[in-house]
């Protein structure tokens, strides 16, 4: 049973200035959040939603880069304490004087609709994550949903001239003669690659998150990816 809802974890993180670096559904619904601290050092939180475990990866002023883990976070009040100041979450780990309270950054509006049910999300990656999870009522089942998302990506390739998918099979036709865009999809395999850096991903939402959050890949033609 899932302890924390991944979508809400991402929303709560955005409220405190974190951005979603990755989401790995098969790894205990792992949400990876990142942001820079006041010194410009990168902080990372790994949040396993199925168990309520949070791993922090921080640069301590005396100990250098260190890791802490806290388990059994089963309510969002505790999670918000970690998001607000990750250095105090270890019960005997990191502690520091809190900075003066500042207004949280404004949340992005939900403007990107799911192509199946129409529910809106804050980014293309979040919309794809909702769809590929199999929780969309119009496309239940993660494997069927991810296969359909792969078909979307192959159509994007045809229209843009870029290569986003890794499957090598040629376009085929199904029994009624219509085009079968999902040919080449492999369940559990690395089905996508970033056209800018070549990194491979199993799911479309992971590729979209990567191209949205990695500065080196934001300006590439990967920005042509849409999920509609």
From TrEMBL:
The UniProt keywords, alphabetically, are: Metal-binding, Zinc, Zinc-finger
Q: Which InterPro entries match?
A: Znf_C2H2_type
Does the record carry Zinc as a key word? yes
Q: Is Metal-binding among this UniProt entry's keywords?
A: yes
Name the Gene3D superfamilies on file: Classic Zinc Finger
- The chain positions of domain C2H2-type read 192-210
Q: Which GO terms describe its molecular function?
A: zinc ion binding
PROSITE patterns from the entry?
ZINC_FINGER_C2H2_2 (PS50157)
The name under which this protein is listed is: C2H2-type domain-containing protein
Protein species of origin: Emiliania huxleyi (strain CCMP1516)
């Amino acid at each position: 049973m899932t302890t924390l809802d991944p979508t809400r974890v991402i929303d709560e993180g955005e409220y405190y200035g974190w951005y979603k670096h990755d989401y790995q559904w098969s790894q205990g619904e792992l949400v990876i959040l990142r942001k820079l601290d006041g010194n410009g050092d990168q902080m990372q939180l790994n949040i396993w939603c199925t168990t309520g475990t949070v791993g922090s990866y921080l640069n301590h002023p005396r100990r250098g880069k260190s890791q802490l883990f806290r388990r059994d976070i089963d309510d969002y009040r505790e999670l918000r304490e970690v998001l607000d100041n990750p250095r105090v979450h270890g019960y005997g780990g990191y502690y520091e004087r809190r900075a003066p309270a500042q207004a949280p950054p404004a949340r992005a509006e939900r403007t990107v609709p799911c192509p199946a049910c129409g529910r809106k999300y804050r980014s293309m990656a979040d919309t794809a994550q909702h769809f590929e999870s199999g929780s969309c009522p119009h496309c239940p089942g993660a494997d069927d949903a991810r296969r359909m998302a792969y078909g979307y990506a192959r159509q994007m390739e045809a229209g843009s001239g870029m290569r986003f998918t890794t499957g090598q099979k040629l376009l085929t036709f199904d029994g009624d003669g219509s085009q079968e865009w999902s040919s080449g999809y492999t369940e559990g395999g690395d089905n996508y690659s970033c056209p800018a850096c070549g990194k491979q991903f199993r799911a479309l939402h992971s590729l979209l998150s990567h191209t949205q959050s990695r500065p080196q890949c934001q300006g590439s033609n990967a920005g042509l990816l849409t999920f509609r």
